Amino acid sequence: GAGVSQTPSNKVTEKGKYVELRCDPISGHTALYWYRQSLGQGPEFLIYFQGTGAADDSGLPNDRFFAVRPEGSVSTLKIQRTERGDSAVYLCASSLEPGNTEAFFGQGTRLTVV
Amino acid sequence: GEDVEQSLFLSVREGDSSVINCTYTDSSSTYLYWYKQEPGAGLQLLTYIFSNMDMKQDQRLTVLLNKKDKHLSLRIADTQTGDSAIYFCAEGLNDYKLSFGAGTTVTVRA
User: What one-character DSSP code corresponds to residue B31?
Assistant: First the structure.
């Protein structure tokens, strides 16, 4: 595609529910990144994929958060037992190879937990 | 450390220069970045500077880096209303991980 696509653009869920957030990277990009941006803050790193594997998941806040990228393209961020503190904009980025200078960000998914 | 700090707000008159300042903590950062975020839009990489450079100019944008003081600034010349946005300073902790500041909201007034 022309850019990084994230769906849905907005998601409202009830506390305790499970949600999945999808990221379609730019075609051919091997590196994929997830960030979380809380209101009034800058994005915070969550996880980095190189191909199908999570090369660094040190930013995931706890074991309720999990992300996959089974075929090395689309990635899904999964959040179990959502809490109100999970409300944020979840941003995905991709790059042809590892390298922040070439990473393109999607428009994000705004998650609201009520 | 991974703290990046920047002032929260800047108001500037149209046509004037804007200067946004940032301090960072990781002296090993290879690259430092400036991103722009407009309402409802994703993060857009504006420019970046390699840590062995003091200055980089790109059209209306000038980045200054003082590595000794870990201070980074972005100057926007001839600021326009379309420059109103949130600007984020970020340091590259490695090839794939960025540490962002909280963002500076720039408001351009006529």
Answer: E
Tokens of B15: 């046509």
pLDDT digits (tens, 9 = 90+) for B30-64: 899 999 999 878 899 999 999 999 999 999 999 99
CA–CA distance, B17 with B60 (Å, rounded to integer)? 9
- Cα distance between residue A7 and residue A110, in whole Å: 10
State the DSSP string of B13-81.
ETTS-EEEEEE---TT-SEEEEEEE-TT--EEEEEEEETT-SEEEETTEEEEEETTTTEEEEEESS--G
Optimal mutation site among A100, A101, A109, interface B, most CBs of chain B within 10 A: A100
Amino acid in the structure at residue A111? L
Assigned token pair, A39 = 């209101």
Q: Which residues of A touch B48 (CB under 8 A)?
A: 100-101
Question: Taking CA B11 as the corner, what is the angle to CA B6 and CA B14, rounded to the nearest 5 degrees?
Answer: 130
The partner residue sitting opposite B48, judged by closest CB among A42, A59, A101, is A101
Name B48's bridge partners: B33
The β-bridge partners of A76 are A22, A68
CA distance A82 to chain B (A): 24
Model pLDDT for residues A27-73, shown as the tens digit of each residue: 999 999 999 999 999 999 999 999 999 999 999 999 999 999 999 99
- 8 A C-beta contact, residue A43 and residue A91: yes
